UniProtKB/TrEMBL annotation:
Lineage: Bacteria, Bacillati, Bacillota, Bacilli, Bacillales
Organism superkingdom: Bacteria
Protein known as: YqgQ family protein
Organism of derivation: Lysinibacillus xylanilyticus
Pfam family, one: YqgQ-like
InterPro entries found in the cross-reference section: YqgQ-like, YqgQ-like_sf
């Protein structure tokens, strides 16, 4: 399963639905929400770090794709 879908599902578990039609904007909002869940002691450090890593990798991939077009 796609790891980004796992993050979307994790956020939905806590009532957060993110879709703005801007993929990079979505990723920025997801990062903010993941950070807030961690600060609220809902996510453990391992899940927090993995989610941030995946979000940042996807952001980099999308930005590189935009620059190549």
């Amino acid at each position: 399963m796609d790891k980004m879908l796992d993050i979307y599902e994790l956020l939905k578990t806590y009532g957060t639905y993110i879709y703005t039609r801007d993929p990079i904007g979505d990723l920025m909002l997801m990062e903010d929400e993941i950070r807030e869940l961690y600060k609220a002691n809902i996510l453990d450090i391992k899940d927090y770090q993995m989610a941030l890593l995946l979000i940042r990798q996807e952001t980099t991939k999308l930005r590189m794709k935009e620059n190549n077009q």
